[in-house]
Amino acid sequence: MLQNYDGYIYHGLYFLSVFILQGINAVRTSFGDRIVPSLMVSDLDVTLDFYVEKLGFEVTGRYPEMGDPLWAEIERDAVALQVFSADFAPEGFPSRPGLTGTLYFYPDDVLRLAAELRGRVLFEWGPEVMDYGQREFALRDPDGYYLAFAEPA
């Protein structure tokens, strides 16, 4: 037993070991700094045309590299999405596209983005200030996925 000067060394080592053990349990690994949704689509060419030509995304990856793609990654600014055909879906995956929610994007300026997209796509709502305090507008992609663009009002 390490005991010296009325037990200070012993108690110091004990509390240090407790602190280290508690610290190990308290340390968490980050989820990262972004999320990239992966959406099944019914027609990859139609989807890529919509996101690239109408919304201004760029194709940053595709598989396979030659021929008709089964999967693609698209990006605009710091936002990325992956889209894939049903032929590329893992076993047991639903056989058709679907999402019971809305993908929210938070651009620098909702009104400026709405002005940029107006005339290219049909807005489902907005831009308007919602009663929950956000200014937003929304649209739907060719598979019916809702894309909302919002900022604090």
TrEMBL record:
PROSITE patterns on file: VOC (PS51819)
Family matches, as Gene3D superfamilies: 2,3-Dihydroxybiphenyl 1,2-Dioxygenase, domain 1 (3.10.180.10)
Taxon lineage: Bacteria, Pseudomonadati, Pseudomonadota, Alphaproteobacteria, Rhodospirillales
Protein name as annotated: VOC domain-containing protein
Organism domain of life: Bacteria
Domain VOC, chain residue ranges per copy: 31-152
Taxonomic source organism: Denitrobaculum tricleocarpae
Transmembrane segments: 12-31
UniProtKB keywords: Membrane, Transmembrane, Transmembrane helix
Keyword Membrane in record: yes
